[in-house]
Amino acid sequence: MLVQRTLKRMVSMKGTGLHSGQPVTVQLVPAPAGNGIVFQRTDLEGQPVIPAAYDRVVDTRLCTTLGMGEVRVATIEHLMSALYGVGVDNVQVRVDGPEIPILDGSSQPWIQAILEAGTRRQQRCRRLMVVRRAVTVRDGDAWARFEPSSRFRISARVDYDHPLISRHLFTFDFSELDFVQKIASARTFAFKREVEALRSMGLALGGSLDNAIVVDDFSILNPDGLRFVDEFVRHKVLDAIGDVALAGEKLVGHLVLHRSGHALNNQLLYAVFADARNYRLVSTERQSALPAHGVELPEAQTGLPTAVGA
Fold it and tell me: What φ, ψ does residue 270 adopt, rounded to 5°?
């Protein structure tokens, strides 16, 4: 039996919005069983809330943005990936601006803070969303597919016309421990020419070498280089986990991505949920035939391994 988890205590993080360049504070507040992950804009009148759900995604350009009415919370994917990655099911995300801070461009700072706070088990079982039939969405040469599997597995391929990135394939069998060690510290990346274009449009104002890998036509501009030799594709896996976590359940299926991004990741969830024959929901109270969703981190474990270039 797998039970839901929340935080033992509140977590507070301060940082800069990637696109606004403005300071923002986030509080992760423990929430009751069954609450799920809910974002709350504390800077707006009435402090409106937005559930973390795939059908609340209103924009996927450059990042994943949730919205209800006129209320928006952008750049949620790294935080969502961290929460899924260490098994936090229920939390209130209080944010005093329209954007989650970029921090170092990965999920690592979130993971560190969550592990330091600790998690606690709750008196309600988790549910698994088990993929039953292969479902594919496409956009030109890019595509994303969920297909049946005995566990949650992600296979991602990147293909760039760049000597340092080129083609990489990374396959990851999800477990909380492996997420922390192999995925969480992979940073977002951008091409220098794209950053310059975005800034001319008033975007990426908070971007820097401290929170992204930046490459020009021939080299990596970050003085310390990469954390992994294939950090680019590992970050695609990180983003994808954050995006499909908006399914609201723990996942059992093989997520296969070819040049996919936030838009296709979200479209894939819509396609899966469009037909009840594509999936089934399984209570872990009664579930015994399926393998465990993944190795859980011990509740007392803190600290984050240092990534190595391997």
Answer: -55, -45
Residue 252 phi, psi (nearest 5):
-130, 105
CATH number at residue 145: 3.30.1700.10
| Residue type (1 letter), 144 | A
| Number of domains observed in the structure of the chain | 2
262 annotated active-site: yes
- Contact (Cβ atoms closer than 8 angstroms) between residue 195 and residue 207: yes
Per-residue DSSP letter, 54: G
The torsion defined by the Cα of 191, 192, 198 and 201, in degrees rounded to 10, comes to -160
Question: Structural domain of residue 95, as residue ranges?
Answer: 3-125
Angle of helix 231-244 relative to helix 77-85, nearest 10 degrees, comes to 80
In angstroms, the CA 246 to CA 152 distance is 15
| pLDDT tens readout for residues 204-254 | 778 888 999 999 988 899 999 999 999 999 999 999 999 999 999 999 999
In b/e form, how buried is each residue of 18-41, taking b as 16+ CB within 10 angstroms? Answer: bbbbeebebbbbbbebebbbbbbb
214 plus 159 within the same structural domain = yes
88 and 154, same domain (yes or no): no
Q: Beta partners for 68?
A: 71
pTM of the model: 0.92
Spatial distance between the Cα atoms of 45 and 114, rounded to a whole number of angstroms: 28
- Which pLDDT does position 297 carry in this prediction? 58
- The residue annotated as part of the active site, out of 78, 235, 254, 262, is 262
